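This part of the workshop introduces the protein records we will be handling. To make this concrete, we reproduce a full record directly below:
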Amino acid sequence: MAESAEAQTLTETLKSNIRPQRHLGARIIISTQEPTISPDLLDLCTVTIVHRFTSPEWMRSLKAHLAAVASDVTDPEPDVGGQDADVTRELISGVNIGTASVVFRKIVGLEVGEALVFSPSAMVGVDVASSGGSRYIKLGAGVLKVRVRSRLTTDGGKSVLAV
């Protein structure tokens, strides 16, 4: 998909809007059912939300762009300390996964309405020190499993079957 002239034009247009977004006060959301979009766009994403899929090819496409599955370059343990460490480890679901094959199994096993969030700069907890100070804990190379709202449609997303 990313090789056609139209796709390259779209990618370049999006990149020209994404790069200065902080200065323009803009936020860009790209929603796709095709994760083999331009690697340049995936590299610019600060949050990636992955719903259930079963294609190993899609996992290969995402692997190069998600810190949580780059086990050869990331530390599988979060930088968590203090008395709230256990609570934070519960928030960071699957943080010890470390390999793309384990992440892929987690993605394949997601139920309807569940997703995995990859966002290294996401704040997922607060570590309160005994001295009274506190610090925010980032997701880093971890993964956060979330529950997305139920479908609002009357058919619940079911396919229409002939009777």
Q: What stands out?
A: The helical segments are 5-18, 21-24, 39-44, 56-63, 85-91, 100-108. The CA atoms of residues 68 and 94 lie 9 Å apart.
